[in-house]
Specification:
By secondary structure, the protein is mainly beta. The protein has 2 helices and 44 strands. The N terminus is likely disordered.
Length: about 525
């Protein structure tokens, strides 16, 4: 291999120095640039050696020596790399004090470097110094002023403590374990190079620190916990933690059956595992409320409405709720009022309904007539004053809804015989005056489109019949002989339905004759 720094022989080089001053300056600049290029910023950078070769390619010596640790001995003058560093054993004191000795075969002084501390300053070629060695140790290097490494030595400090910390439930071990409620666990650790071990978080106190394996007594964790162990020795401290997750309570709650009707019973049954206490809640009052021991049990309930039942149990591992719903039929039913026209038998009520959670098919009834089995709909239902109850029934249970819309005749009409009848209309003359001993002829105008029986009463009742007519009919009747003022009353009623009636009256004034005065 051709050396890139190969130079002329020594004599030509010296002649060059003497005869050419400019060459001297160039050589100095090259050496300076090489030094700063390799050592200006990093004391551990690769170092550059300038080596002088003879005319037959033999090394005659170095101009600037390279690191003794990174180049062959042939690259150095004899004695350049005579260097050794030693240390006393064992460590002394808590700081691990050791006597560092060195023997460096160079004239003058050198610098002693220590990792973590840097340059400890210039030292005489042969000497020693008591130095505290940090945990984990340090490397010492002997360097020339130009940072050339002559030799190095690693000096150990106190060893750092080691710690392996685990938990076990008897089956699974590790730094993270899951335990059943009320089950025992054990903490185990293996430690080296420690003087003391102390517990914290979920436990406390001094623990065994001798090199080797150790265990805690078996114990029941109170709940989710973290257990920390810190071991300390001359070489430092180490902490490890074990996380224990206690399983939450397991709660089941079932209703049998979970869909019932009025008067029916559902049995709530539940199982509980890993709990210390339980409480019960319900959305409607049925007697389920209160505290219960954390044991398997059951209870009968008969809610009036759909009800949610909740059983909440607490244990070392936390809180677990369980909810069960008992469905009850419910629904919506509306019916509008209506008016029955004269001579009609019914009017239409607009009925709307929704059937929720029915055990059987819905049945919409008016009286004994079923109109629909739909779950929801809107339809007209005929009603009348004597039959106006609309009913939504669950054919699978006793649940029902009822509405009674108003179904009335017109204000001057009467419900009779399954129909609305307008009352008879009676029109009489205005009050009149006659002489004493006379009779008065009354023209009564009767309107009734159905057979009507009438009576005129002037003190002596007179009956007459009005045949059905679309319009008014005049009936002429004569009073008895009147000698005093008289109120004459007419009463007409439906021949078949007497409640369909009307009365009217007039007054007849009677004046004395002249000869009677």
């Amino acid at each position: 291999m051709i050396n890139p720094f190969r130079s002329l022989s020594t004599k030509p080089l010296l002649s060059l120095v003497v005869l050419t001053p400019i060459a001297v300056l160039l050589l100095f600049a090259a050496l300076t640039a090489a030094y700063f290029a390799t050592h200006a910023t990093d004391p551990y950078a690769a170092e550059l050696a300038f080596i002088e070769y003879s005319s037959d390619d033999n090394v005659e010596g170095s101009l600037v020596p390279a690191s003794c640790e990174s180049s062959d001995a042939v690259n150095h003058f004899p004695g350049d790399c005579a260097c050794s560093i030693g240390y006393s054993d064992p460590c002394i004191g808590a700081a691990c004090n050791r006597t560092i000795t060195w023997n460096v075969g160079v004239a003058g002084s050198f610098n002693l470097w220590m990792t973590g501390a840097g340059n400890l300053g210039p030292k005489i070629p042969n000497g020693n110094q008591l130095i505290a060695i940090p945990p984990g140790g340090a490397t010492f290097r002997a360097r020339r002023a130009d940072m050339t490494v002559l030799c190095s030595q690693f000096v150990p400090g106190y060893p750092a403590p080691t710690l392996v910390f685990t938990g076990t439930d008897g089956v699974v071990s590790g730094p993270n374990i899951t335990a059943d409620p009320f089950d025992d666990i054990q903490l185990n650790w293996t430690v080296t190079n420690a003087a003391t071990c102390n517990a914290s978080n979920g436990w406390a106190g001094a623990q065994a620190a001798a090199d080797g394996a150790h265990s805690s007594p078996w114990f029941i964790p109170p709940g989710d916990s973290t257990y920390t162990l810190t071991c300390t020795g001359p070489g430092g401290s180490v902490s490890r933690s074990v996380v224990v997750d206690v399983r939450s309570p397991v709660v089941t709650l079932n209703a049998v059956p979970d869909h019932i009707g009025p008067g029916m019973v559902s049995n709530l049954n539940w199982t509980v595992w890993g709990a210390t206490s339980c409480s019960k809640a319900e959305t409607t009052p049925t007697g389920f409320m209160g505290l219960t021991p954390p044991v398997d049990d059951n209870q009968n309930v008969s809610p009036l409405l759909t009800t949610n039942y909740t059983l909440t149990c607490t244990g070392p591992g936390g809180v677990t709720p369980a909810t069960e719903q008992v469905l009850m039929p419910s629904g919506i039913l509306t019916a509008t009022d209506c008016v029955v026209a004269d001579f009609d038998t019914s009017c239409d009520s607009t009925v709307f309904w929704i059937a929720n959670n029915f055990l059987g098919a819905p049945s919409l009834l008016q009286g004994a007539i079923e109109f629909s089995n739909a779950v929801t709909d809107t339809m007209p239902i005929p009603v009348n004053p004597s039959s106006h109850t609309v009913r939504l029934e669950d054919t699978g249970s006793a649940f029902f809804l009822e509405r009674n819309p108003l179904a009335e005749c017109l204000p001057d009409s009467v419900w009779a015989g399954g129909r609305c009848w307008p009352r008879p209309d009676i029109s009489l003359p205005i009050d009149s005056v006659i002489r004493s001993g006379s009779q008065f002829e009354i023209e009564a105008e009767i309107t009734a489109n159905y057979p009507t029986t009438c009576t005129m009463d002037d003190g002596v009742p007179q009956g007459f019949v009005h045949a059905a007519s679309a319009g008014p009919v005049v009936h002429t009747l004569t009073t008895r002989v009147l000698r005093n003022a008289q109120v004459v009353t007419f009463e007409c009623h439906h021949t078949l339905y007497p409640t369909v009636n009307r009365q009217a009256s007039m007054r007849i004034e009677v004046v004395p004759n002249v000869q009677e005065i």
